[in-house]
Design goal:
There is one protein chain. Among the domains are: 87 residues, no CATH class; 77 residues; 156 residues, FomD-like (FomD barrel-like fold), CATH 2.40.380. 27% of the residues lie in helices and 32% in strands. The chain is built from eleven helices and 27 strands. Helix 1 packs across helix 6.
């Protein structure tokens, strides 16, 4: 990809990513702190790709021109051994004829094929019911590990960082700090040589306030090209026979991809950031814990004396689970999904060592995976977590304290956040049954994940090594 490809970066990983990507791409619309840290001239025009920290601070979303998105992913996928990446089948700006599968209090769940989206009732001007087909656009994609679904709308837009377009709108609007600036941007539109299609309205984003006239016209021209692509796809869809009971993709003018950074990857990003500016050990690990951590880290770095140790005790005291509080065990999968193993009570807490014990009361009948013992109401699962460890054990006990076996999950390094424990499961696990027998399980699932390219061979070897060590200790 040409070095002229332009990227905008936002969020807690911005300094590190600017350092890692700056030699290959032009960084545009840089924030004031980035301009100070890099002491460089940054352009103010439109981006080809935007890179943004996810709302939960666990990773980044990358959206924009497909080839550039792919190149950025290739560059960052090797950030650390526990970096995972996924291509989104429902990228930003994509259009679908979706099918309503469920109506909720505030909106409808719409299947788009490989993923479901959420369409708020405020975003549609007619009544819809289960089974109805509805034409929607992905306005705000969601990471595969998120509990949220991609946010949908029925209005059609072209998304940009300087110029955006809205179909069926005959006006110019502008995001600007005051009325005078908004009027100025609106007047400037009439001076630009690029003609906007008749059925589209212009929305100038905040990036337009710093853009030169030539940059504004280039941004508008790029938006118009994508609008024409969308119009063409919509025109073709009119003459295409469609199954009303099945979702259909109309067009995907942009691509979206997601990267999840594990604990080791955050430390690698610390190293990249440290080459630019003072960086506290564990900078990104701490900031990932909670939104309020960012200001605290920034303040600490102003006072920081360089050292080698991550202040994990202070981090967990301020931004870790609270004793007698509750946490969700967020069980990530290498294919991008994430689900909760349930909510447990924090019964022991030692921030200095990073050790936490969580109790969960088991509900309903069943069988404990791979162990084979019966699950009964009143059973208790005792799980011991340690920050940064590549495995964690869960001991199952009956209501009267009888052992029902132990399950050791092998995973990416555990991270303890205020309301959740996070990691990605690496499939291979070790179990110890009540009779003392020990068995390593699910190696075949790990092999399949490697074959499917969800897990790198390097990470798989680490998982096998950890499992072998755990198995040896338990025997």
């Amino acid at each position: 990809m040409s070095s002229t490809s332009r990227i905008r970066i936002r969020g807690i990983y911005t300094t590190a990513l600017t350092h890692l990507l700056g030699d290959e791409f032009d960084i545009v619309q840089a924030s004031p702190p980035i301009r100070r840290r890099f002491d460089d001239e940054f352009e103010t025009g439109e981006y080809d790709v935007t890179v943004e920290t996810t709302d939960d601070r666990q990773g980044i979303g990358i959206s924009g021109e497909g080839g550039v998105v792919e190149t950025v992913v290739e560059r960052l996928a090797g950030t650390g051994i526990d970096t995972f990446d996924w291509k989104d089948p429902t990228p930003r700006g994509s259009l679908f004829d979706g099918v309503v599968t469920e109506t909720l209090g505030s909106g409808a769940v719409v299947t788009l094929g490989e993923r479901d989206g959420f369409l708020p009732f405020r975003n549609i001007d007619r009544r819809i019911d289960e089974g109805d087909q509805v034409r929607v656009q992905v306005h705000d994609p969601a990471p595969p590990w998120s509990r949220d679904r991609p946010l949908l709308g029925t209005d059609v837009q072209v998304f940009g960082g300087v110029a955006s377009l809205s179909k069926g709108v005959n006006r110019v609007v502008a995001s600007a700090p005051d009325d005078a600036s908004r009027r100025e941007l609106a007047r400037t539109t009439e001076m630009l040589p690029t003609d906007v299609p008749e059925d589209w309205g212009v929305r100038w984003e905040y990036g337009a306030n710093d853009a030169a006239i030539g940059e504004m016209d280039a941004a508008l021209s790029s938006a118009v090209e994508r609008a024409e692509t969308i119009d063409s796809a919509l025109g073709e869809s009119v003459n295409t026979a469609r199954d009303a009971d099945a979702p259909q993709s109309i067009t995907k003018p942009d691509a979206t991809a997601w990267l999840w950074f594990g604990r080791e990857s955050r430390f690698e990003l610390d190293d990249a950031r440290r080459e630019v500016t003072t960086t506290l050990p564990g900078h990104h690990r701490i900031k990932a814990a909670d939104e309020s951590a960012s200001a605290a880290v920034d303040f600490a770095e102003d006072l920081h004396e360089p050292g080698d140790e991550v202040p994990i005790g202070a981090t967990l005291r301020q931004f870790g689970p609270e004793e007698d509080g509750e946490v969700f065990i967020d069980h990530g999968k290498p294919d991008g999904r994430c689900f909760s193993l349930g909510k447990g009570a924090v019964v022991e807490r030692d921030p200095e060592s990073g050790k936490y014990t969580v109790h969960r009361e088991m509900q309903g009948p069943g069988t404990y995976d791979a162990i084979g013992t019966d699950r009964e109401a009143g059973d208790v699962a005792v799980t011991k977590f340690r920050e940064g460890r590549w495995w964690y054990p869960t001991a199952y006990r009956s209501e009267d304290g009888e052992s029902k076996g132990t399950y050791v999950n092998v995973c990416t390094p555990v991270e303890l956040f205020p309301r959740s424990v996070r990691y990605v499961d690496l499939h291979v696990d070790v179990v110890k049954r009540p009779d003392g027998t020990v068995e390593r399980v699910d190696d075949d699932e790990l092999d399949s994940a490697v074959e499917a390219e969800y897990i790198s061979e390097e990470l798989a070897e680490k998982a096998r090594s950890v499992a072998a060590s755990v198995e040896k200790v338990l025997r």
